[in-house]
Amino acid sequence: MSAAARKKKSVRADRNRKKAAELLENDLDLTFAKRFFDTPLPGHAPEEWTGKLIVVEGSDGSGRSTHIALLKEWLESQGFAVETMGLRRSNLIARDLDEILAHNVVTSRTLALLYATDLYDQLENRIIPALRAGLIVLADRYFFSLVARAAVRGIARGYLEKIYGMTIRPDMTFRLKVPPQIAFEREFRKNQMISFWESGRDMHLSDSLYESFVSYQSKIAGELDVLSKKYGFIEISAEGSIPRVNEALRRHVAEHLGIRSTKFTPSSALIHLWR
Predict the structure, then answer these.
(1) Mean of the pLDDT values across residues 152-174?
(2) Model confidence over 63-96: pLDDT tens digits?
(3) Which of these CATH numbers, 2.170.120.40, 3.40.50.300, 3.10.180.10, 3.40.50.1000, describes 52-273?
């Protein structure tokens, strides 16, 4: 082979290596774009994550936490390892948030930032490690609820979505829908009380606890309608029985994860929920 031919071959090889590197970089950029809503969370490699993030949204009284517990047991019976997360569960700030909420001594914007801190701490220390290890993460609410809560208190939705721009895109997001009147009845029957914050009492919507709850939850529902259309929530009516609603959830999850059977009977520890 002549010197000119060898040089031409070397140039072609360099060009091919450069093109391959660019393609790999583009693939990684696409992976990051798919896994995060906006700016990637620094220091993480989502292409290494083999787990799934499944979010269940819904008001108090929608059965959200009940269905998370049932889904967890069903998935574990199918051989999946499961981690759970929810609002105000970070080791960093959860207790402080509980105390602040108990004393009602915080502005809406400060509260939104505190909730963001709680969520990002869980992302770093619970959710991402679980996804990296191949676990299914079931989220009992996610930043969607936080955006809705802050938005109805007058904080711009665009500002809020920027705050949560480094959060991970869920693989599936469910929204359990139930009229606020039914949610109120369920919640009061269960706890014999209604949350100050879940009824929007800080917003002075009504002197009546019932009317305040219905008005506030209706506003939240309106915000979630917007987010549902934007991010493609799977909406399920939660007015039916627990077994019927949970079957619908299992059917969607099974299809996504490639699980053949959705048959499930809760263990003795959870059978009281099966009503």
Answers:
(1) 94
(2) 999 999 999 999 999 999 999 999 999 999 999 9
(3) 3.40.50.300
